[in-house]
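About this split. The held-out portion is used to measure sequence recovery: a designer receives only the C-alpha cells and must propose an amino acid at every position. Recovery is the fraction of positions where the proposal matches the reference. Here is one held-out target exactly as it appears in the evaluation file.
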C-alpha cells in the first residue's frame, strides 16, 4: 500500500527532474558564432518584424545558426532553412533560443 505522502514525494521528485532537464532560453546574441540553436519564441518582437520572419519561414521551432556578427553594432547574419538573413542587433537580442545537441 502506498501512502498519499509517498505519492506526493514521487510526483514532486519527477517534476523537479523534468524541470532540471529542460533547456534554458537565452538570447540569440549570447550564443557562440556558428552554434546551432532552436528558436523558442518570436513573441518579444515587433508584430511587423514577426510577420516578415514568419513569411520567410523563420518560425518558432526553426533551427538557426549564427553566421556573422558585424563590428560596432552592425547587422547580424543568421542562417535558417538555407537562407541568410541580416537583422539588427537589438532585434537579435529579443529572439529567445535554446541550444540543440546535433
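Reference sequence for scoring:
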Amino acid at each position: 500500500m502506498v501512502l498519499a505522502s509517498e505519492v506526493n514525494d514521487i510526483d514532486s521528485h519527477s517534476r523537479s527532474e523534468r524541470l532540471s532537464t529542460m533547456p534554458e532560453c537565452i538570447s540569440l546574441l549570447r550564443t557562440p558564432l556558428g552554434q546551432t540553436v532552436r528558436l523558442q519564441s518570436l513573441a518579444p518582437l515587433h508584430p511587423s518584424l514577426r510577420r516578415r520572419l514568419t513569411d520567410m519561414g523563420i518560425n518558432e521551432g526553426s533551427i538557426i545558426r549564427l553566421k556573422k556578427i558585424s563590428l560596432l553594432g552592425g547587422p547580424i547574419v543568421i542562417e535558417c532553412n538555407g537562407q541568410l538573413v541580416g537583422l539588427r542587433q537589438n532585434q537579435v537580442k529579443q529572439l529567445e533560443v535554446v541550444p540543440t545537441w546535433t
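Annotator remark: The radius of gyration is 18 Å.
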